[in-house]
Design goal:
The chain has about 200 residues and is an alpha/beta fold. It has eight helices and six strands.
């Protein structure tokens, strides 16, 4: 699949939540398909998201709720969604980063120094991880997920997953996706091809 399939037209408003800070986030480790627990700050960030949703969600009972199957996202959803049980969808799991999952920056550089030296951004690390899933397959499964959303929804997932979803929904050129920020403790509202950060 090529990367030029264009934007995903979404007629519904989506509210996107990245999971709270984890222990591996704090240590600079790539998590990908692996997991680590939320830190105290991560739980506070999820609590902050709960407050944002309570303030800004129109008709919460009329929305769909979806979550990645990975524990860090499910714990965030438990706190942020105020008792609402989301649909757990495996297509929302984070990008698989292959051999670099669980490694610190120093460990990655020690294992693959030449490859790491070519990675100028975190995005480069995710996209070039040895044995990783890669952007093409990730984009395919997220397009598939988005095509199944029947109405306005809240989605709790991960940095790279939400970056790709936002790039697709706002028609941002693929080479610019690495510039998308991925805040924890905020909610990104996407409607009519435009996004707004709620904090």
């Amino acid at each position: 699949m090529s990367g030029d399939r264009g934007a995903v037209h979404m007629p519904h408003t989506l509210f996107l939540l990245r999971h709270g800070e984890t222990e591996w986030n704090r240590e600079g480790k790539i998590q990908g398909s692996l997991d680590s627990p939320l830190t105290e700050l991560g739980r506070l960030q999820a609590t902050r998201q709960a407050g944002i949703l309570a303030r800004d969600l129109p008709r919460p009972d009329a929305l769909g709720y979806y979550c990645s199957p990975l524990p860090r996202a499910r714990e965030t959803a438990r706190i942020a969604l105020g008792g609402v049980a989301p649909v757990v969808d495996p297509r929302l799991r984070e990008l698989d980063c292959g051999a670099w999952e669980g490694l610190t920056p120093a460990e990655r550089a020690g294992r693959d120094p030449d490859l790491v030296a070519t990675c100028a951004t975190d995005w480069d690390l995710y996209m070039n991880a040895p044995g990783g899933e890669g952007l093409t397959r990730l984009e395919s499964r997220l397009r598939d997920f988005l095509s199944d959303i029947p109405g306005p929804a809240v989605i709790v997932a991960h940095k790279v997953v939400l970056t790709v979803i936002r790039g697709l929904l706002t028609n941002l050129p693929r080479p610019d996706w690495h510039r998308i920020s991925a805040p924890q403790g905020a909610v990104i509202r996407v409607a009519d091809g435009r996004e707004e950060t709620l904090s």
